[in-house]
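In response to a reviewer's request, we include the raw inputs and outputs for one of the modeled complexes. The four entities were modeled together in a single run.
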Amino acid sequence: MNDAVSPSRYQLAEIGALLAEPARAAMLLALIDGTSRPAGELARAAGIGAATGSAHLHRLLDGGLLAVHVQGRHRYYRLASDDVAALIEALALPRTRPVLPDPTGGDRPLRTARTCYRHLAGRLGVGLCDALLQRGYLQTASEGMRLQHDGAHALVQAGLDAVAVQSLLPLAGRSCLDWTERRLHLGGPLGVALTDSMIDAGWLRRRSGSRALQPSDDGLRRLMSLGVPWESDR
Amino acid sequence: MNDAVSPSRYQLAEIGALLAEPARAAMLLALIDGTSRPAGELARAAGIGAATGSAHLHRLLDGGLLAVHVQGRHRYYRLASDDVAALIEALALPRTRPVLPDPTGGDRPLRTARTCYRHLAGRLGVGLCDALLQRGYLQTASEGMRLQHDGAHALVQAGLDAVAVQSLLPLAGRSCLDWTERRLHLGGPLGVALTDSMIDAGWLRRRSGSRALQPSDDGLRRLMSLGVPWESDR
DNA sequence: ACGATAGTTCGCCGGCGAGCGAAACGTTCA
DNA sequence: TGAACGTTTCGCTCGCCGGCGAACTATCGT
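The model returned the following structure tokens for the whole complex.
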């Protein structure tokens, strides 16, 4: 009986060991927005030398948490998958509970809308997921969340590209817990693709150097037409 | 910009460090079925001495992953919450992918039905969650999954205790990923309470010394009446 | 009141690994 | 071709932490 459990003990410890070093944790967190970054930048973000950083990146690579893309004399590292990203967010979450970010603090844009790996999170992300669920546009199945046909229709009505919306139908969504709102929002392939569509349509704009997403006035109006609650001065 | 992220770097590393030691990982895994166990037993399960075990248990306690219950000269340790349990299962999962458990192996009872922390997992768990979702008995809201009134009615019809079912209505469920079926099943307070009800009604029986749950013939019939698929010889 | 048992505290040892500087390697640009 | 730059490899030191045995405390049984 003891033997049945023991293999996973080392698997668990292996992942733990990879996250246990603040320098490696910082590197992973720097990549959680889905970007690819060169080794030197990651070392700088972690506050360590290039040599040490290289060693850490190799361990993360061997551990399957990172992937590389070689381009000339640069090596761009990124998270290996959105499974990994979901894992990091989930792990960074529970310890945050006693130290919730200051509601009046300077992170307001982040709290409003941001990317969580590649999908929409923050107040808008939670609101959108909530609205889609409440109207039955999004339904949970055992393989994840699925966009319904009437939901696709509503998204096109609201102004998203019809072809892009059509391609959302076979995708599966994953529910992802938001650390500022402490509510569910839509992640997974479906969440990523939907977010891309909204950015393409100009509802949201990426801010360089930050995970924050800037909603346009037009985008806000269209989101509200889908049932997303919004008080502009909150 | 760098400062906004850095606190969570240490939070992430702290959790990682707690999991990084195989002995601690073994202790956590030994508790993942939701039981409380005395310090000595956990040390034995981890294959270390009592002194070392005591130190590990204290670190896990300080880190908020464990809780204690003192009874006479015994100290019973358990996971601090089902958040922690969900975390452990989620972490033990991704590394398992290349080494999925042998379908023909001796773990068939575990694959059929088992406790995941305190709620039902395995083929029956996934099937039940799937059936409840498909019939609309269970619906997803942003705070989690909720049992609908017609769902409660159906559960009572199937033979569960009416008072117990009534108490399920205000509870929130969490979707939990199953590592053998790779599909969603129902966890959280709602999942726990529902599983308890089914055990009380004799549909399932706990097996001592294992996480496996043994379904009774009667219980299987009743689950099938709720729409759970079942081929007896699989 | 006594020994037996569960658990913790203390002190010590040994090994893993994080960190850096120096040097080597490969690519880019002039 | 040679200099500059990004990245990796190597060799080294040092601190942290896991492990145990022994002593101590607390509770239970008789």
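As requested, we also summarize the result in words. The mean pLDDT of chain A is 82. Residues 41 and 72 of chain A are 16 Å apart (CA to CA).
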